[in-house]
């Protein structure tokens, strides 16, 4: 297979009917000179289809599967590349990772799963149809169509089980007490739900969401707030509190993160994709997560659905 022509990573927003499942798709053709990729911590996961090169978790010697489902991560992720790489993928909401893997995100946190093992028939159909897509736009649209078909053809209770948790992450942005009130559970049950469906504690999930919202605010070209003003506007105690969280969860200071978001040819190219994502019109109001508040399905036929019902109970909007 020929070495892919390098081009800037490109973000493709998801169709409206899939926004509760995926934020969008990414096409990345990276030259051999980009030897590493750094991703901030995230509640979201990724579906990655790599057709050129090899990619390894930093410090590991086993390459990621060519068709991989990557779970959420509570810490920054680093990957190394062997040669030029060509990758297309979807940015997945937390419940979409659970839907595809059939597992709670408590067990997919920080994991790289082989989609051919999880869904052999569906993965095979995706691979077979790939050669018919002639450009990045067509390939990303193919990924959207593949996910849509998988959702539509899925046994309804299976899709409903995971879709009921789509609104859990945005609720945490309002604080734990507000989340408990809207979900209708106590603090301990909220923690169990977050560990199961987000793979981490409510506090860690909220901290990651706040980090992402801070990056989003700082990346806006028209945004003039910096330093202490930005920290207070995002709910941090002070500027040093913001700096610590960004270094711990994004892997680099705010100034470097903003600069990296304007350089799609560096190891921080995922931040440049985030810059494209944040500039798209019509995105859901809650920053930092693909999940949006949505009505829960009416079916309630699985043992896990009853547990999820409480977390997805329709809440009166305060907006």
From TrEMBL:
<feature type="region of interest" description="Disordered">
    <location>
        <begin position="276"/>
        <end position="319"/>
    </location>
</feature>
<dbReference type="GO" id="GO:0043565">
    <property type="term" value="F:sequence-specific DNA binding"/>
</dbReference>
<dbReference type="InterPro" id="IPR018060">
    <property type="entry name" value="HTH_AraC"/>
</dbReference>
<keyword id="KW-0805">Transcription regulation</keyword>
<keyword id="KW-0238">DNA-binding</keyword>
<dbReference type="Pfam" id="PF12833">
    <property type="entry name" value="HTH_18"/>
</dbReference>
<dbReference type="GO" id="GO:0003700">
    <property type="term" value="F:DNA-binding transcription factor activity"/>
</dbReference>
<dbReference type="InterPro" id="IPR050204">
    <property type="entry name" value="AraC_XylS_family_regulators"/>
</dbReference>
<protein>
    <recommendedName>
        <fullName>HTH araC/xylS-type domain-containing protein</fullName>
    </recommendedName>
</protein>
<feature type="domain" description="HTH araC/xylS-type">
    <location>
        <begin position="182"/>
        <end position="252"/>
    </location>
</feature>
<feature type="compositionally biased region" description="Low complexity">
    <location>
        <begin position="308"/>
        <end position="319"/>
    </location>
</feature>
<keyword id="KW-0804">Transcription</keyword>
